[in-house]
Amino acid sequence: MSFDDANQVEQFQKHDAQPETSENEGSKLYSLEGLKQLREIMSGNTALPTLDPVDKFLQGGNLLPDLHIDGVTPEMAVCNSGRPVSGDAQKGGKADAQDKSAANPSDKPAEAKDATTDNTALNANNDKHNEVVGEMKKAHPDMTPEEETKVRQDLEKIDQLPADQQKKVYESMEKILTAPTDNTTKLSGEQRYEIAGSMAHQIAHPEDIKQGEKQTCVAANAEKTMAMTHPDRYAEMVSGLATDGKYTVTLPNGDQKTIEAQKDASGKLADKTDPNKERSYASEVFQNFAMNIPMKDGESYKSYAPGTRESRNEKDKNPDGVKSDKDTGERLEKSNPWFWEDKMNKFGGLEPGDKDTMFKTLFPEEKYEDRPIQTADDLRKAYEENKGPLNVGVPINDKEGKFLGMGNRDGGAGNHAVVITHIEQGPPALVYYDNTVSGTPDHTYPKGQGVPIEEFAAAMKAGQRKATVRTNQ
Q1: Least packed by Cβ within 10 Å: which of 170, 225, 273, 348?
Q2: CB neighbours of 328 closer than 8 A, spacing ≥ 6?
Q3: Candidate from 100-104, 274-278, 334-338 with smallest mean pLDDT
C-alpha cells in the first residue's frame, strides 16, 4: 500500500484512528491517524501484540529495519527528530513544500506541530518507563529481556489512563520500589520487584487478577473492579500496605479502621500463600486487606500457606474443622479469645452483609445495593444501570452453575462471585464475565464464549444470588 496517491490519502483520512486487521494476521492497515499510532509504536509508547520485533526495539525514536506493515516502511513511520517522513520525501518528491516549511518554521503545517508535541509527550513517557525499569533492575538484577518487555508493555497501557490517575499510579510504583521499609515491612528487593510488577500488570490487565486456592472471590472481584475503575486508588492501597505496613479506611458507619498488612514472625511482609501459585503478590496484599474490612473488632482474617507451621495453632495442629486435604490455609484469628475459645479458628467464609460493607468502604463515593435477579431482563437492567463491571453471585454446582466449570463444591450450595464485563444483546443474548478462579471455562469478552443470558439469570434465581448494583450513576 502506498501513501503517495492523493486519492488514497483522502480515503485514509476518512478511516477511524484504530488500525484494521488485514488478511495477514501479523499486519495492520493504517490511516493518517494510524500513522501517528505507528510513530508511537516506534517511540515505544504503544505495543501491538502481533509485532514481536517492536518488543526488542531500542527506545528513543530509532528505526526498526525489519518492521513491515502492509507496505508501510520505517521511513514513513518516524525519524530521529520525531517528524513523520513521507514516502515522497524519501524519493525527493514535494521538496519545495518541505523546503518552505524548513525555511519558515512558523509556517509548518498543523500536523507537523502536533507531531512535535506528540513526540515530546512520548519521550516523557519513555523517560518514566526507563526510570521504573531501572528501579526494578536494582531490586531484581536478574530481570530478563522478556520480563522487561512485559513491564514496558504494561506501562504503555498505564499511559493511556487519564493524566491524574496515571501520575498517582507511577508515584505508587516508585514508593513500592524505593521507599524505606526497615521499620515497617522490611521489603526485600525481590518483594519490591514482584509487587510493583504485578500491580502494574493488573492495572493494565485486570482480567488477570486471580484469587488462587483461597476463599476470596468477593475480595478478588472488588480488586478487579477497583483496578478497572479506580486504578490510582488501587495502586495507592497496595503501595501503602506494602511499604507502610497498614492502610486506614472509613467504614460505612463513619468509623476509621486501620488494617495491618500481614507479616511474618520477624516483622517482614508475609510471603505469598497460594498453594497453586496463581495469585500475584499485589493480589495477596490487596485481598488480605480487603477481607479484613468487614471483620468484627478483635477478629482478623489471615492467609497462610497450607501445611506450614504458621497455619497451625499453639498445639501444632490444624484448627477444629480443618481437613488437611481441603485446607486453604485461611484462618479467623481472635486477639482476645475467651478462655474456652481458640485464638486460631477455621475461616468459614464471609457472612451476609460483609460484601456490602467491603464495597461501600472501598468505593465510598458510590452507592451500592444488592439486587435479586429473577429474569434475564433483571440482569440486563442491573448491568445497564451499573454502567461498568457488574459483580454478581452465582451458585457453584453441576446444575444451575454448571457453566462455571467449578464442580459441585460445598454439596452444591456454594456461592461464587464473578464480574460481568459485557452483555451481547443478540440474538442470541450472551453474558461474558471474568472469573478469578483459574482453570475454568473462558467466558471473558471478547475472546471467550458467552453464556446465554437466560441460563445465567436462571442460575442466579435458583441460588437466590444477587447483583451488586451502583445506584448513583
Answers
A1: 348
A2: 213, 214, 215, 275, 306, 347
A3: 100-104
